[in-house]
Each structure stands twice: as C-alpha cells, then as structure tokens.
Amino acid sequence: MVEPYKSEILPHWRYKDAEVAARSAKEIYALFEEYRQQNDFVGMDMARKFIQMGYTRARRYANHKSGKKYDEKRQVKPLDCDPVKAEAAAVFKKWWDKIRADEDYLQRKKAHQQKWG
Known about the structure:
Elements: H1 5-9, H2 18-37, H3 41-63, H4 83-100, H5 103-116
Helix pairs in contact: 2-3, 2-4, 3-4
Organism: Enterobacter bugandensis
InterPro entries: DUF4385 (IPR025494)
Protein name: DUF4385 family protein
C-alpha cells in the first residue's frame, strides 16, 4: 500500500454489516472526491482500491464465515453463507460500480497508465 493514502483511508475501512459498510464506503468515497479536487489520481485510485477491497473481503466472509476458503489440505471448503456480510458486500459493490462508471476517473486512469505503464 502507498503512504500517506493507507493511513488516511484505512481508519474508515469497515465491513461488519451493511450499516457499517455504508458509512465506510461513503467516507472513503468522500476521500476519493477530495483527491479528485486535489488532482491526485493516485489518491483517487487508492480510495477505489479500498472500496473494491471492502467488496472482496466482505464477499469472502459472506461465502466462508471463518474467512478461510481452503481447508488444511488446500481443498475449497463448502460454502458457509453469512447474509449479513453479503449485504455489506453489496453496499461496497454499488460504490465500486459508481467509480468504475465515472468518466473522469476512467480518463485519469487511462492517462496515468499511458504515462507510467
């Protein structure tokens, strides 16, 4: 993770349930917008990454309550669904989709990739 962004964003990153996830995603998205106002694409992308990780981490716990997908033999464990975490994941997914559809973000991403590879 890239500093100072990790220290700025991580305290807001929570996915316990849908209510907590909604507050978390809203706060992280506000940071995304602050970085946009500062013309800081790296900050925007780090905020996007934390929202995406909110989705993927909540989905992991939604599918496997222990958070562990594999058993000690490296076999995929059967699904042990947690609907509370699934709702939290859905909250983050909406915010992630909003960013992925943001034309300004996409243009900045393309420019960044062209410049830095």
